[in-house]
Amino acid sequence: MNDTKESFHTNPLRIYNHMNKRNQIWVAFRAAFPYTVPILAGFVFLGIAYGIFMNSLGFSAIYPILMSLFIFAGSMEFVAATLLLITFGPINALVLTLMVNARHLFYGISMLDKYRGIGKKKLYMIYGLCDESFAINSTVNIPNFVDKGWFMFFVTLLNHFYWVIGSAIGGIFGSYVKFNTEGLEFVMTSLFVVIFIEQWMKEKKHHSAVLGLGLSTISLLIFGGTHFIIPAMIAILGVLILLRKQLEKVEVSAT
Amino acid sequence: MTMSLTQQIITIAMVVLGTMLTRFLPFIVFPSGKPTPKYVQYLGKVLPSAVIGLLVIYCFKDVSLLSASRGIPEFLGVVVVAFLHYWRKNMLISIAGGTIVYMILVQVVFL
Q: What are the pLDDT digits (tens) for B17-46?
């Protein structure tokens, strides 16, 4: 008696849960997609540019496609292309990569909490933690009814997909592009500016944002475009640690 | 190309390894099972704003104030994005508007 009653009750519930889960994934996908549209434009364009660049260096389309799939770090892929043309030096390649991509360390530290408890997807989301995925996932307010893990997963996956598709188009058809695309790369700059403004309007105190802008600018002026990131990161880290007491106090009094 | 295919694969593998190290390291050092140290939690809270500031500046790393256009198209592009965003608060309009203005500037105005 008890058994039948229980199966009667649990079974439909299980089916409902299953459908609900599929529905949740779909809802998360639809919520995530609009945020990735600017990146669709930017990555397809930059990916095409990368494919054309590789093509011009004499590499077949399979190079940009596989490199975009496995490396998935835009600026580093351009550097990697030049590494393939000089004398073989794997350690040099590794050290250079660590320096160019050191900023990812900050992304990881920022996402430690947000990525907590979202299961196996997390591994892929760390793997695909590029500038743009970080910028969206670290600042967006995900609505309560949307599963946060799946939302961030789809932002990462879509960005990765756009980048690979762009590289493939560039690598395969690059030499046929006739439309004057000069300046289209500004779409990424615009994206970061918009995200910066959104974050600015959302936060009560602007110390950190001002420090990031200011210290990076100073570092850029002193060290120049190719070497400014690591000094800027060290300066940001140092000043934020020095100001910890004050900034945490502001936060407590603000809330 | 002077490298053999194997050498090319090793070189690309090193770039993949380096990139993955920078992405996975924080999660390996501070696993989710253990409580994250307080100062790292603090950094996780304050870093995003600063890093997005860094990313904005990163976009201008190749702008030269000594070049013919002196960074004016970049500056105007950002002004347009900021203006559109305060006005309409629509991410896509701001980004599309800024990009179109910038493209016109570099293709037609500042040759």
A: 999 999 999 999 999 888 888 888 898 889
